[in-house]
């Protein structure tokens, strides 16, 4: 006979399953909320979280009685997995690293306690739950930077798929095989060499870029960012593309010291949810400011992209600036034959992962929203787009306005401060935004329209991501890739010397910008923000390296651009900038790869 709650006749099991049903309904609703309904999500998240806290506490206090009433171990694991998903989903909405750490705590406890082990090879449903859990835990570890755990989980994931294929029908696991191929491909591209040092902003490793007191009437802080990339057959895992992943990491603080290495999992799942939340704060660095809030959009429809952009602009604080990173081709109609490409892989993951992690914005039936400013030149760009693509392709349904983002789409949002990074072969058309703003001059960093020929034979855009994005996130590694220097040829002390050298030059350039009388206010107002300042300084380095790279020397199509322009003292032809390239090339023994004036001499101090 089922155990009953003291004081009434309701069986414990009925109370428990009533809480489970209530939690499931609320979880389904919050999972489907689009990103642009931010206020509604914030309010609803804490309601859902409260229900799961009650559910978790109830099953802890009555575990033995519930087990006697028929509660299975995998059902406990399912609740813990939902809580971990809630934490990760809230991290993706808020960029609060504490929630990411909490998600790791719960997932790791599920792994160590083997909640899905019982009946794993007897029940196909439990096998799929275990695989889904591992796939989601992989994503959390990837974003958190726990690479050792990532590789451990990948091995376990692949082994489990092979064992399940022998136990059940092999056709039941074809989709999971695609997921395994995706993460393996991702890790082959995002190698250990690319992660020798954290991509996040580190107070320990990054230079103290004290820009002094820039001559600006105001100082803006990066409070929000929109990150999106779309390429056929691009490297990705679930809904996180390689380029977006690197930019996501680049716009976060790296907790310093031992705080980041400790694990809150010692609390395990025996503590109530609220207690675990408090304990995991030890995994974070309280001395750091909050991360900029980021919206990572995976292959959004144009109407949804504009809805998210409008929402964030509307909520942007008076001291804030929005970073907009778009990485996509200006060409359309390409079809990839790879089984991992475009729609086939997307459909697979929608079926098995539900893609809760990235909160995909669902397609709407009307994709025709097109915003056009009154400026004639920008309107002409949109009108001529069918014959000559002049934007970014975020779809595969032909050369129509419904699948392209044009410069004219962004102009109405320049009523708020924007820091725009365009990584595309059609990036140059976006310079038309400069001068057409509706209130706030925009800062633009534009990639080269042509990728320079690389000496490294094993590198191209598809397997390793964008070279321009690598320069903005890992400039020393980008320099090595361009110069044909492989990871196997790299010595740690040489890489350390190069990092210190680049930091020294970036400090000098920051001081030059801060004291310049000709620096445009668009740039001076962002110099006190560490993330934007670092991106700008890395852009200066990238532009100089590509301008002096011998195979494309003086070829404008292979050089990035920025608008408004920077002071003459920091252009690629400036001696101070050319010296930096020469000294970096000398460190790696790659001076023959660059064309430099004969009158530039090396400084003995370096």
UniProtKB/TrEMBL annotation:
One GO process term, biological-process aspect: DNA-templated transcription
Gene Ontology MF annotations: transcription corepressor activity
Domain of life: Eukaryota
Record PANTHER family: PROTEIN SCAI
Stated name of the protein: Protein SCAI
Taxonomic source organism: Arabidopsis lyrata subsp. lyrata
């Amino acid at each position: 006979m089922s155990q009953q709650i003291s004081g009434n006749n309701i069986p414990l099991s009925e109370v428990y399953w009533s809480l489970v049903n209530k939690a499931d309904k609320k979880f389904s609703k919050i999972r489907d909320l689009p990103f642009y309904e931010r206020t509604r999500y914030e309010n609803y998240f804490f309601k859902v979280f409260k229900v799961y806290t009650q559910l978790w506490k109830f099953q802890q206090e009555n575990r033995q009685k519930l087990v006697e009433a028929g509660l299975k171990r995998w059902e406990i694991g399912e609740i813990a997995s939902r809580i971990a998903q809630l934490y990760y989903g809230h991290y993706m909405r808020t960029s609060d690293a504490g929630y990411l750490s909490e998600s790791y705590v719960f997932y790791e406890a599920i792994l160590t306690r083997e909640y899905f082990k019982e009946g794993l090879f007897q029940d196909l449903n439990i096998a799929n739950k275990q695989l889904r859990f591992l796939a989601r835990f992989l994503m959390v570890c990837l974003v958190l930077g726990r690479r050792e755990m990532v590789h451990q989980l990948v091995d376990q994931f692949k082994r489990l798929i092979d064992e399940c294929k022998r136990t059940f029908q092999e056709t039941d696991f074809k989709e999971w095989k695609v997921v395994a191929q995706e993460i393996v491909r991702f890790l082959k591209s995002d190698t250990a060499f690319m992660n020798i040092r954290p991509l996040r902003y580190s107070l320990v490793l990054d230079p103290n870029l004290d820009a002094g007191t820039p001559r600006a009437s105001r100082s803006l802080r990066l409070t929000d960012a929109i990150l999106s990339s779309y390429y056929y057959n691009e490297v990705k895992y679930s809904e996180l593309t390689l380029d977006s992943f690197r930019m996501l990491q680049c716009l976060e603080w790296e907790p310093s010291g031992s705080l980041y290495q400790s694990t809150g999992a010692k609390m395990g799942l025996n503590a109530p949810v609220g207690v675990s939340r408090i304990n995991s704060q030890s995994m974070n660095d309280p001395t750091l400011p909050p991360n900029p809030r980021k919206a990572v959009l995976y292959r959004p429809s144009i109407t949804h992209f504009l809805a998210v952009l409008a929402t964030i602009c509307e909520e942007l604080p008076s001291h804030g600036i929005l970073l907009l990173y778009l990485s996509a081709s200006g060409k359309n109609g390409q079809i990839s034959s790879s089984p991992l490409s475009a729609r086939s892989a997307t459909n697979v993951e929608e079926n098995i992962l539900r893609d809760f992690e990235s909160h995909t914005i669902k397609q709407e039936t009307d994709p025709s929203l097109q915003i056009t400013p009154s400026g004639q030149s920008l309107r002409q760009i949109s009108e001529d787009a069918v014959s000559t693509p002049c934007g970014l392709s975020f779809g595969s349904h032909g050369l129509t306005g419904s699948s392209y983002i044009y410069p004219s789409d962004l102009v109405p949002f320049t009523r708020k401060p924007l820091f725009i990074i365009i990584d595309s072969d059609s990036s140059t058309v976006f310079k038309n935004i400069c001068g057409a703003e509706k209130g706030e001059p925009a800062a633009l960093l534009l990639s080269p329209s042509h990728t320079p020929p690389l000496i490294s034979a094993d590198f191209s855009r598809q397997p390793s991501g964008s070279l321009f994005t690598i320069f903005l996130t890992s400039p020393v590694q980008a320099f090595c890739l361009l110069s044909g220097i492989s990871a196997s040829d790299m010595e740690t002390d040489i890489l350390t010397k190069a990092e210190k050298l680049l930091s020294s030059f970036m400090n000098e350039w920051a001081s030059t910008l801060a004291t310049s009388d000709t620096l445009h206010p668009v740039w001076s107002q962002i110099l006190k923000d560490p993330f934007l300042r670092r991106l700008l300084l890395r852009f200066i380095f990238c532009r100089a390296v590509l301008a002096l790279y011998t195979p494309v020397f003086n070829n404008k199509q292979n050089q990035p651009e920025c608008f408004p322009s920077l002071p003459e003292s920091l252009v690629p032809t400036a001696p101070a900038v050319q010296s930096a390239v020469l000294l970096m090339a000398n460190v790696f023994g790659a001076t023959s790869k660059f064309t430099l004036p004969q009158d530039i001499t090396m400084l003995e101090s370096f």
